[in-house]
Amino acid sequence: MNNLVIVKLGGSVITHKDSSPPAVNENNISRIAHELRSHDGELIVVLGGGAHGHQAAHKYGFGSDSTTQGLLLEGVSPIRHNMTVLSLAVEQVLNREGAHAVVLAPFTMVTLQNRKIATFPTEMIQRTLDSGLVAVTHGDVCFDSMLGASILSGDTIAVYLAKEMRAKALYIGTDVDGVLEDDPRINPNANHIDVIDTSKWNAIIARTGPSSATDVTGGMKKKLNEISTLSGLDIDIAVFNLGVSNRLSSLLSGTSTVCTRIQI
What we know:
This protein is of the alpha/beta class. A hairpin with a 2-residue loop joins strand 4 and strand 5 (116-119). It is built from ten helices and twelve strands. It has helices at residues 11-14, 26-36, 50-59, 69-74, 76-96, 123-130, 154-164, 201-207, 219-227, 247-253, and strands at residues 5-9, 43-47, 101-103, 111-113, 116-119, 134-138, 140-144, 148-152, 169-174, 195-197, 236-241, 260-263. Helix content is 36%, strand content 20%. It is globular and about 50 Å long.
């Protein structure tokens, strides 16, 4: 049985999202790395961009259909630099915790076509896992055959790898308690949704809005639309609050915790 678990670390938790220039959240990363060590099996860690990705992407017009190809290509270097800094910071902490992690940057292996994945070879990721290492990858800027360059989000990567590599589980860490009926930053009384199944899917998608923070990759609605492509694959899927201690370790150990289970 495949014991591969994919964990998406939300950028708003592993970076100080409002900090400019971008800064990693070292305290959260250290805690998360310790919790990840509770998993005994193959592990892929996917990083969201947070401040390191979204600020530069916004500055260079990613997410806008009117941005020139020249400006998009100009943004490749600063986005790549920022995401390299973030991923190496996470790799360093994981290794300090004894996880033996290796970063595999999407820029070096993924091509896009009109913001969609055109090619994404997974052989090196599988070789990394087969060698007993933790594979770390992240949201990134990649060359795009139609646009010059575009953003590949961590959510897209996590879902793609879960499908292609037949993961046992996909746990998506955010800065809220899972999926809520409204943005809790705007409506603090927003109801938490414990389970989303096929019968509730369309109604919940219709009520779920984008992130209220600067985010060129679409927020919660985009996450759910990505996850919908995993329908029928028998993958344990949960959206949870990565900012709360022990939520991740509970999911990894099979212990009940606050989250939104997605059963589609």
